[in-house]
Amino acid sequence: MIYRALYDTVLRHLPPEEAHKAGFGLIRAAARAPGGTRALRRAFAPPAAPVARVRALGLDFPGPLGLAAGFDKDGVGVLGLAALGFGFVEVGTVTARPQPGNAAPRMFRFPDERALVNRMGFNNAGAAALARRLRVLRATTSPGEVPIIGVNIGKTKAVPEEAAIADYVTSAQLVADVADYIVVNVSSPNTPGLRDLQSYDKLHPLLRAVRAALDEASPRRRVPLLVKIAPDLADADIDTVADLALGMNLDGIIATNTTTARAGLHDAAAVAAAGPGGLSGAPLKARSLEVLKRIHARTGDYLTLISAGGIETPEDARARLNAGATLLQAYTAFIYEGPAWPRRIQQALASPEIAHAPIPVIPALGLAADLAGSPSRASVIWSQPLADASRPLGQRGTSGP
Ligand SMILES: Cc1cc2nc3c(=O)[nH]c(=O)nc-3n(C[C@H](O)[C@H](O)[C@H](O)COP(=O)(O)O)c2cc1C
């Protein structure tokens, strides 16, 4: 209600990127005030409200819905965002070198279609700066307060394609010890050539190198590794990525990033005025669900599937879980619906049908023995109060339902 009024009177009249800065600035300021995260949590949820917890990637998530990459690229507001009810926050995309991104304007609203078009171009302060910030956060915040933080890494724009692997490896090495999981982003439409890295010949060596870099940088804790794909891949290419992920013992797939398609946007002049970029929000819903189903048909519960793209309602969220997603992410609905939205979705998902869903049985497919033993295969949803949800990095993943 209050957000709706704020959106209608102020935010809607600001350019989208300024509105994002203003809204995010308020969340950060509230979280920084003494007792701020507790106050935020209380403001947006009754303290004993049930939530659907998820165990995946060797971690205990206090709810299946997380914030998708791109909102908090530099990891400056994770505490406030988690206090609003996100079960995890994916920061980034960060790149090995800091870069300004594309020229503004680079974000465009399509409120009638509950959609955004953006061509931010990975504006970020670099992987080293993010690592420093998260290290300080973990050192200065009580462990129960720090949410699960995924780090999404991409290619520096100025780096030629031949050097892409080394660039990702640099980022992976820098953030390995501060990330609960890592995402290799090969699906943003706003860095020239990036999406070509989704082909088998390029993706396989890239993921192998990042996996090796993570193992070397974090020998005592295996950092889960996921890949994020575009909704615009042909079905055969989706199958290839799914097979590759299984074959490489990857931990999961995030499906999907934004689309270069414009189907679902009705104002041709506004579309032309916005120009190139990735479309997110409601128009992405159907394709994102379709991609999820396709991957799940191929991978079963061997991979942690994180579904993103057009999730707006509890029904959307539930449909993704029913279709094989273990976790969910959203960005655009958060922009349009405001700070009470994440908690609303989490609580709706704690309804009995979800909370008491049977534990998925891992089918014996004769895959390598270590597949079945990997913690990422187990995805269990159950209901529990939020209070004891978070535990420090390195100490999670030991509890059961
Ligand atoms: C303004 C904006 C910036 C984004 N930046 C990134 C990014 O840096 N890295 C990334 O992997 N995805 C990025 N995304 C994509 C989202 O993480 C998400 O995959 C996509 O928006 C679909 O979810 P949604 O429909 O809930 O927004 C961005 C999306 C938006 C709207």
**Roughly how much helix do the residues carry, as a percent range?**
25-40%
CATH fold description: TIM Barrel
Distinct ligand kinds? flavin mononucleotide
Order of helices and strands: HHHEEEHEEEHEHEHEHEHEHEHEHHHHE
Number of domains: 1
Number of helices: 15
Query: Strand order, biggest sheet?
Result: 3-13-12-10-9-8-7-4
Overall residue-averaged pLDDT value: 85
CATH class: Alpha Beta
Strand element count: 14
Net shape: globular
Q: Please give the CATH architecture.
A: Alpha-Beta Barrel
Structure class = alpha/beta
In percent terms, what proportion of residues is strand?
15-25%
CATH homologous superfamily (4th level) name: Aldolase class I
- What are the low-pLDDT stretches, counting only 5+ consecutive residues below 50? 358-401
The gyration radius over C-alpha positions equals 19 Å
Distance between the termini: 36 Å
For the sheet with most strands, the description reads: 8 strands, parallel
